[in-house]
Amino acid sequence: MSGEEAKVFVITGPSGVGKGTLIKMLRERVPDLALSVSATTRQPREGEEDGVDYHFLTEDQFQERIAAKDFLEFASYSGNHYGTLNSELDRCLAKGRSVVLEIEVQGATQVRAARPDSVQIFIAPPDPAVLRERLTGRGTDSAEAIDKRLKVAEQELGAQDDFDHRVVNDDLEAAANELESIVRSSVGGS
Questions:
Q1: Cα(158)–Cα(162) distance, rounded to whole angstroms?
Q2: Tens-place pLDDT, residues 148-166
Q3: Backbone conformation region of residue 16, classed left if phi is above 0, alpha if psi is from -120 to 50, else beta
Q4: C-alpha–C-alpha distance, residues 190 and 15, integer Å
Q5: CA 84 to CA 82: how far, in whole Å?
Q6: Which residues, in sequence order, are bridge partners of residue 121?
């Protein structure tokens, strides 16, 4: 990917659709691709590290960063705030590396307005019922939190036509191949 113009890839979709898994596979296949580490006010899950998985901020810290206009995008989701720090994006792009943003649909809309050159990719489930199974199988959320996430997912699925690309995560390997193809063709086929 080096030598080409660095691109911003926005990858979004409902909770439980497999964004994280697909992005991990994509980065193994396209190692030059950087991942922007998002900021959040949610509590770390077991095994997550500050600065690696997320920049974990308090509510006050997050609000201070909003006031300072430090975010490219930010959104509230399931009672927590998430955002992409401009400094994270700048760090990656300054090295000439294309970067992946794993963000919520609400944030993707903000990025589209701020960076119309970004490549917007929506990850969709084969069937909305699959999301409940995946969220339950994670074992990280209460039944109430899962219901909340599924209500949001319903709205998010309605926005998928606003994206440049739509990848259905029915077969993980096929979805990863499609995602890789989109990324490679967007940076000049390298």
A1: 9
A2: 878 888 888 888 999 999 9
A3: left
A4: 31
A5: 7
A6: 11, 165
Nearest-angstrom CA–CA distance, 68 and 66? 5
Is there a contact between 25 and 18 (Cβ–Cβ < 8 Å)?
no
Instruction: Answer for the pair 144, 35: CB distance below 8 angstroms, yes or no.
Output: no
E strand residue ranges, the chain: 8-12, 34-35, 39-40, 55-56, 71-77, 80-85, 99-102, 119-124, 165-168
Give me the pLDDT at residue 163, please: 95
Whole-angstrom distance, CA of residue 72 vs CA of residue 20: 20
Whether the CB-CB separation of 30 and 21 falls below 8 Å is answered with no
Contact 35, 124 (CB under 8 A): no
Q: Of 190, 189, 187, 163, whose CA–CA distance to 98 is shortest?
A: 187
Question: What is this structure's pTM?
Answer: 0.84
